[in-house]
């Protein structure tokens, strides 16, 4: 039903305000959450936190997407928490489900083999649909066409510090394209052939590889092998023009045609991260140190001296993930030395 794809908007009296509640200029941006009906309590946790720490001062719109229609309770309880307009919409089915040209026999054998190896979400088709949707489709949703910027929010995350400077405007004013808070290592068994595909794409399309890119963060040997570092995409603040542009569009089509979203379990995190690191200049990627953020089991707490106090953070600096063994923060920092 096309009406469900265009969604249902609540609090629309606040839509389209040119300035935030605090009177500042606003970016062309939305807060974006993909969620399931049974994640209502977890979604409310994230919305409550982000509204309290950020959005009640700014009034940015929220957009909730789902592969099945949101139920009445979900819409009502979320609407009661938000300060700006909120829309609940359906994902077009062709953006979500496993395509016909995927060999289901091969895909199911590979799922079974991954289950044997105890890989997280190994047996899940819906998780694979989600990863492919987040990699190549969310920014094509009709309701996202009006926006340039999005802040991806997941159910059950925590925001630990006051966000009183608009991160979208920061990105815009400093020519940033992709923003993150946590960087870490991927499970190699979920992406065994991803890097060979990336290398083949880059060799065939050298025009897309940016000078002064962040390859030094992805690889220890100039690109021969992948060190598994990526930005944790459950938090993203980014410019969708990048995903909609020629380089990423060609890249996604190329990867999708390999079938690795279903024959392996390619995540949107390494796919987005590798694209950003190769097709952008490294200075177009931004680390938001001052945004304290938690998605189980990891927390980023600001490490710039004075920030925890200044931004009234509820996290503890010494527990921050950034310099723990599994983090890639040092690899991110080394490319700026
Ligand atoms: P994890 O963070 O990788 O452990 O995975 P999550 O379970 O948090 O899923 C990532 C995101 O995709 C969250 O925003 C989920 O709400 C969403 N998600 C995952 N699977 C589905 C699904 O089948 N349908 C919908 N609508 N959302 C999903
Ligand atoms: Mn999650």
From TrEMBL:
Q: Which UniProt keywords apply?
A: Transferase
Does this UniProt record's set of keywords contain Transit peptide? no
The terms describing its cellular component in GO are: Golgi apparatus; membrane
Q: Where on the tree of life does the source sit, at the highest rank?
A: Eukaryota
**A GO biological process held by the record:** protein N-linked glycosylation
Cell cycle among keywords? no
**GO terms for molecular function, please?**
alpha-1,2-mannosyltransferase activity
Similarity annotation: Belongs to the glycosyltransferase 15 family.
Q: Could you tell me what this protein is called? A: Glycosyltransferase family 15 protein
The root-end lineage is: Eukaryota, Fungi, Dikarya, Basidiomycota, Agaricomycotina
